[in-house]
């Protein structure tokens, strides 16, 4: 139940509709409140009063202007999303939808428009209805204030949007979010001096039961966003074992393995329904339980920058250094355990969860290959591998993977037939940092 509430929360945070809708409702309610106050106030200073024509004129101008501003705001947002997708990576677009500032500005503008519509409807001239004029002077004055606020909000929105396209800000946002998710979902480093395995539980001690188990398959397709582990435990009988054949960040394909249960449960249909309900599948990949998705986003920005169509090694350097900050946070922590057990003998096997080596491979494999003929980027990568190695203990298993990637950088440089001096720069950088 908790993971489904988190999914709803994630969907609302990614929606461009929900926050503006709240402002529309709030604008209408605020208009009704101001009309009620106007009806209760007997007299106002002459400078604050308005006529029927002036009230309608002010409300019409503010409503028209704010509606035009709303169109500008939506157009700028769509333009930014298009530019970010084509210039950096389609994966970073998801973060732009979550920008609360943009949604609040849209809400203020649209809420002001709604406020003006409701107040305008209440304005009456002396020849209308009962013959008594209705001029909500206070509500009209508030409309002027809201109009000014909307103008300032649009100016702030344009400034914010211009700065938000700075690649460093985009990379910082992804890096901050990924580090935050890593700290929430990955265990803290092991402090026990007797425990030398800082690479986490690799699942080797969690052997599978013998015999054929009950296999449950997916009935839907999409990205696995969350797994409700307590629900999976609850569907197991005492002494039973469940092996989960997927993980957050994997793609679900109908009729492919979801999990296997030993021994087969008495009510297979009920177990199938509960197991499928414990896996939250959505249209997009998220970082809710999949911190490695942030690594994928940063790597994609670097790859886009290294593509022939963009050819921007400086942006690639920026992305690689942000990537190093995320990878370092993961390497100093234990990956999520690949097995869990209960006091009554129930066991949950999680062989698909990501490991330190897989994080390093996802982060640098494709970038290393894309930079095979770019000695400057290769030197950046060697520097990153060196810095990451320095941040780890001497016996950390991840250091071996980093050393292997550094050696492959040198092999790629030699195989790419880089001109002599540039090739020597890469070799010298390697010898300086990893030479024996």
Notable characteristics:
436 residues; alpha+beta; Aldehyde Oxidoreductase, domain 3; 3 domains; 5-stranded mixed β-sheet; 8 strands; 7% strand; flat
Task: Write the topology of this structure.
Layout: H1 2-13, H2 18-40, H3 52-87, H4 93-97, H5 100-122, H6 137-164, H7 167-185, E1 214-217, E2 222-227, H8 229-234, E3 241-244, E4 251-252, E5 257-262, H9 268-277, E6 279-282, H10 292-306, H11 313-331, E7 339-341, E8 347-349, H12 356-370, H13 375-390, H14 397-415, H15 420-434
Describe the protein's architecture and organization:
The chain is an alpha+beta fold and 436 residues long. The chain contains 15 helices and eight strands. The chain has helices at 2-13, 18-40, 52-87, 93-97, 100-122, 137-164, 167-185, 229-234, 268-277, 292-306, 313-331, 356-370, 375-390, 397-415, 420-434; strands spanning 214-217, 222-227, 241-244, 251-252, 257-262, 279-282, 339-341, 347-349. The protein has a five-stranded mixed β-sheet. A three-stranded antiparallel β-sheet has the order 4-2-6. It is flat. Residues 192-200 have low confidence and may be disordered.
């Amino acid at each position: 139940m908790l993971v489904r509430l988190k999914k709803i929360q994630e969907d609302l945070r990614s929606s461009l509709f929900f926050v503006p809708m709240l402002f529309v409702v709030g604008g209408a309610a605020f208009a009704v409140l101001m009309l009620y106050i106007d009806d209760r106030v007997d007299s106002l200073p002459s400078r604050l009063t308005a006529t029927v024509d002036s009230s309608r004129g002010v409300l019409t101008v503010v409503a028209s202007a704010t509606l035009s501003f709303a169109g500008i705001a939506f157009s700028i947002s769509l333009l930014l999303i298009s530019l970010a997708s084509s210039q950096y990576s389609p994966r970073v677009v998801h973060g732009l939808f979550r920008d609360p500032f943009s949604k609040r500005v849209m809400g203020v503008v649209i809420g002001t428009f709604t406020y003006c519509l409701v107040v305008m409807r209440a304005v009456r001239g002396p020849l209308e209805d009962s013959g008594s004029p209705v001029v909500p002077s206070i509500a009209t004055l508030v409309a002027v204030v809201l109009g000014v606020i909307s103008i300032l909000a649009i100016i702030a929105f344009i400034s914010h949007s211009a700065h938000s396209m700075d690649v460093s800000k985009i990379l910082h946002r992804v890096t901050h979010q990924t580090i935050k998710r890593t700290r929430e979902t990955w265990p803290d480093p092991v402090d026990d001096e007797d425990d030398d395995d800082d690479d986490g539980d690799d699942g080797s001690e969690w052997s599978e039961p013998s015999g054929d188990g009950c296999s449950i398959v997916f009935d839907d397709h999409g990205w696995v966003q969350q797994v409700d582990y307590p629900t999976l435990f609850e569907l197991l009988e005492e002494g039973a074992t469940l092996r989960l054949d997927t993980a957050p960040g994997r793609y679900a394909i109908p009729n492919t393995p979801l999990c296997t249960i030993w021994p087969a449960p008495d009510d297979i249909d009920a177990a199938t329904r509960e197991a499928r309900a414990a896996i939250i599948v959505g249209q997009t990949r998220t970082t809710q339980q999949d911190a490695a998705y942030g690594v994928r986003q940063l790597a994609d920005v670097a790859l886009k920058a290294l593509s022939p169509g963009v050819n921007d090694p400086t942006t690639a350097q920026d992305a690689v250094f942000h990537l190093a900050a995320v990878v370092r946070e993961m390497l100093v922590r234990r990956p999520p355990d690949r097995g869990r057990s209960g006091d009554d003998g129930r066991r949950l096997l999680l062989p698909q969860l990501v490991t330190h080596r897989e994080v390093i491979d996802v982060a640098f494999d494709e970038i290393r290959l894309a930079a095979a003929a770019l000695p400057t980027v290769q030197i950046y990568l060697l520097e990153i591998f060196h810095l990451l190695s320095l941040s780890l203990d001497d016996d950390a298993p991840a250091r071996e993977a980093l050393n292997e990637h550094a050696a492959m950088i040198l092999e790629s440089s030699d195989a790419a037939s880089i001109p002599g001096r540039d090739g020597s720069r890469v070799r010298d950088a390697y010898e300086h940092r990893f030479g024996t």
